Amino acid sequence: MSSKSRWADEDPEAEAINAQRKREKEEKRRAKAEKQRQLEQQAEEAARQREAANNDTEAPPKKRRRLSNDPDTTADVQVGSAKPQENTSNILQFPTQEWGPSRHVDNFERLNHIEEGSYGWVSRAKDITTGEIVALKKLKMDNSPDGFPVTGLREIQTLLEARHPNIVLLREIVIGNKMDDVFLVMDFLEHDLKTLLDDMREPFLPSEIKTLLSQVLSGLDFLHSQWIMHRDLKTSNLLMNNRGEIKIADFGMARYYGDPPPKLTQLVVTLWYRSPELLLGAEKYGTEIDMWSIGCIFGELLTKEPLLQGKNEVDQVSKIFALTGPPTPQTWPGFRSLPNAKSLRLPQTSAPSGNPPLLPRSKFPFLTNAGLQLLSSLLALNPSSRPTTQECLSHPYFREDPRPKPKEMFPTFPSKAGMEKRRRRQTPEAPKRGQEAPRLDFASVFGGQSSGDGGETGAGFTLRLG
Predict the structure, then answer these.
(1) Among 21, 85, 125, 188, who pairs with 108 as Cys (CB 3.0-4.6 Å)?
(2) For the chain, which residues make up each domain, given as ranges?
(3) The pTM is what?
(4) Which residues contact 319 (CB under 8 A, 6 or more apart)?
(5) Which regions form coiled coils (predicted)?
C-alpha cells in the first residue's frame, strides 16, 4: 500500500477538478497526434502525386516556389522535417509601422481661427475622440498647380524627423473632402513670442530671457545636428505655453543641407531677420543664417521691439551697417566677392577693435558684458565669426547671475490664441517659394537725393548699381 503525501489535497472536489484537467490534457494530446497523422498522410499523398507526374514526363521536375501557407505547400515543406509543427498556418510576425488611410478633418471641431501664415492657415481645434485641444494647420495649395507643394513636403518631412522638446510636435496628417485639403495636426501652444512682446508693458526679465533663449538654442542645436536649416527663425515662429516651454514652429522654409553646402536660393528668411550675406546675394550659405536670426531674436527680447526694421532689402542693409558698423577687410574678409557687394562704396574708416567688434553699449544698457559679447558675435557681419549653437549654450552668459529662471516659475499670460484671432502689428512675411531675388532699388532709400551717378549715400556708405 503506497503512502499518501501529507501535502496531497484530500478534498473530493479538488480531486475531481484535477481529474478533469488530466482528461482535457489527454484529449488535446490525442487531437494533436491525429492532426500530425493527417499531415503525414497529406505529405505521402502529395509525394505519390509528384512521383506519378515525374513518371509521366521525361523532363526534370521544376522547383516549386512557396507562395502561400496553404496546406499543400506546407505539407511539401514538412516532408523532410524531423520536428512536426503544431499549427502550420502561423508564421513569424515582426512589428512594423502600421499604414492606413489618413483620418478625416471632420474628426476635429474647429474652435477659432488663430492666424494666416505664408504657407497655411492655423486654427485651434478639438479632437472629438479624445477631447484634446490641438493646432490645425491647413496647407496652402494656391502656388502649386503641379501637385503637392514642396514647402508642405519639407515641413512634414522635417517635423517627422525633428522629435525634440523644443520643437513643435506633428501628431498626424488629416485630409478634407478634396484632394488639396491637407491639414497638419500639431500640439497647441497658447502664445507666440511676437504677440507676447507686443502686449507686454515691460520686456522679459534677464533670467527669463536666458530661459527662453537657451530653449530656442537647444531646439536649433538638434536641427543643425540633423543637417536641417530652419531658414525662417523669428519671434512669431516661436510658440510658448503657460508652463514656460518654448518650441520652434513653421518649417515651411526648412531645408536639409550638406558639407559643403549646396547652391541654395538666397530669398529666404523674413526680411527683419535676414543675414547680411543673404542680402548681398550669397548663393552658398549654411547654419550661420539661423544664428544671425537668433541674434535678432535676442535683441528683440532685450528691447521688446524688432531690432532691425528695414523697409526693403537696401534699407535693411543700411540698418545693419548702422548698428554693426560698415564691413572692412578685417571684420569680413572676402565680402566684396558677393554679387550685391560690388556696388558698395564704403568710407575709409579705422579698423574697429575686436573681431567681431562689440555692438554699441548705449543700444543695450542693461545687458552684461558677457551678454553683449554673445549678442555681438551672433550679429557678426562675417558668417564664419558667428558661434554655433553648442558654443552659445556653453557661453558664460548663461552661467552668470542672474541664472536662467526655472520653467516652473515662469509667469503665465492670457491666451489670445485660445479666445480670438490674434491682432498683431503688420510685420514682413516670409518670402514665398518660387520668387526670385529682386533687383535692389537704391533710389531714395536713405532719405537722400539721387546723385548724378545713380548712387545713394547714407549710414556712412554709398550703394551703387553695378
Answers:
(1) 125
(2) 108-187, 192-347+357-409
(3) 0.70
(4) 308, 309, 310, 459
(5) none
